[in-house]
Specification:
The complex is a heterodimer. Chain A contains four helices and no strands. By secondary structure, chain A is mainly α. In chain B, helix 4 packs parallel to helix 10 and helix 7 crosses helix 8. Chain B has a two-stranded antiparallel sheet with strand order 1-2. By secondary structure, chain B is mostly helical. Chain B is about 70% helix and about 0% strand. The chains are: A mainly alpha, B mainly alpha. The interface between A and B is large, with 53 and 58 residues.
Chain lengths: ~110, ~250
């Protein structure tokens, strides 16, 4: 089952995309986007994983111990920060869209249609 | 475009995309069968040359320190964006209905919830500071600790005291923390340029691996990022909460 983490990542990505396209509520659209992003965490961590390896924290394991790739873990950290910032910005826009149009349904956003 | 057309178009597009995605993922090395060179080099030299036992932090604040500068300013810029988007619009005014906002408006918020909410504030702050300063030894660092620190004042809001939260974390102060942290991190990079001639090259003594004051600039960088992240999150929190609690529509 060595492909399972990647299969889950692909599933999360596509399920999130479906959520974005089919959503009738902007909050749900934004949550779907975070699901898409969580697929990228799985891919990154999956790429860096080595069998029988430990976390790259050498505080209590010998320096020669086999460890998983710390580089992808840093990239995931960056990824999470980006997700938080993008989500905050989108939610702020959703708040203003609700004020302007009185609805969170994307099809009610008239300004986007004209 | 109506909903059915949109979903049909999506179906066609996603079938093609899914094929490429699965094909791409299938080309990756098997899970657990890792042979990345860069990661192995870092694992080999992290403790001996950087004197940090948490290599994720070593990468974040030293080896990839320059990238983190960009990451940090993304956070700074996006919080600025949130403030800008959620500014007071025409026809709106902030009416702090003091009684309503100060006393909680959650149905079912009990005295016990309030007491607990206030009790966890010092614990959250202590854990946040611990995570920030021990980043180079054990998992943690500025980003993780900063979020926990921001949760401290937020717990005051959960205790149903929004305006009190503004009292202990006023806009001015959290914005200052956000800006000072961002600037502080950039200054650490400049310190490298001034003292050893390379931007973001470590210019502080490395110390003994595993000790609190070790791994050179990482502790300082972690503290700067922690300050920035907690400030940024609190600015964003209070902007959103202002919308919910204080802003009244001019027409309403």
């Amino acid at each position: 089952m060595s492909f399972l983490p990647f299969a889950v990542a692909a599933w999360l990505f596509l399920a999130g995309l479906y959520g974005i396209v089919s959503s009738r509520n902007l909050i749900r659209t934004i949550l779907s986007l975070t699901i898409v992003q969580s697929a990228t965490y799985l891919v990154l961590l999956g790429v860096g994983y080595a069998d029988h390896a430990q976390a790259p924290i050498f505080a209590d394991i010998p320096q020669t111990a086999k460890a998983v790739d710390p580089v992808v873990q840093v990239l995931v950290l960056t990824d999470i920060v980006i997700e938080a910032t993008v989500t905050a910005l989108l939610l702020a826009m959703a708040v203003q869209a609700h004020k302007r149009f009185g609805s969170l349904d994307p099809s009610d956003l008239r300004a986007l249609r004209d | 475009m109506n909903r059915t057309t949109r979903l049909a178009l999506f179906g066609i597009a996603v079938a093609g995309f899914g094929f490429v995605l699965v094909d791409g993922l299938a080309g990756l090395p098997d899970f657990g069968n890792y042979h990345g060179v860069y990661g192995q080099v870092i694992t080999g030299i992290g403790v001996t040359e950087r004197h940090a036992t948490d290599l994720v932090t070593a990468l974040n604040f030293d080896i990839r320190g320059f990238d983190t500068l960009g990451e940090e300013f993304i956070l700074f810029g996006s919080v600025l964006g949130v403030v800008l988007i959620l500014r007071e619009l025409r026809g709106e005014s902030e009416h702090p209905n003091r009684h309503e906002a100060d006393e909680h408006t959650f149905a079912g918020a009990s005295e016990a919830l309030r007491a607990l909410g206030l009790m966890i504030v010092p614990a959250l702050v202590a854990i946040g500071v611990y995570i920030v300063v021990h980043g180079q030894i054990t998992p943690g660092g500025g980003f993780q600790g900063g979020v926990i620190l921001a949760a401290g004042p937020f717990a005051v809001f959960l205790a149903g005291r929004y305006l009190r939260m503004k009292l202990i974390a006023p806009h001015m102060l959290v914005e200052l923390g956000d800006a000072a942290g961002a600037a502080g991190y950039a200054l650490i990079g400049l310190g490298g340029l001034v003292f050893v001639g390379v931007f973001f090259k470590n210019f502080l003594p490395f110390g003994i691996p595993g000790h609190l004051l070790s791994a050179g600039q990482m502790d300082l960088a972690s503290a700067a990022v922690g300050l920035e992240v907690s400030g940024a999150f609190l600015v964003a929190f209070s902007e959103f909460l202002d919308q919910a609690v204080l802003v009244k529509d001019g027409s309403g």
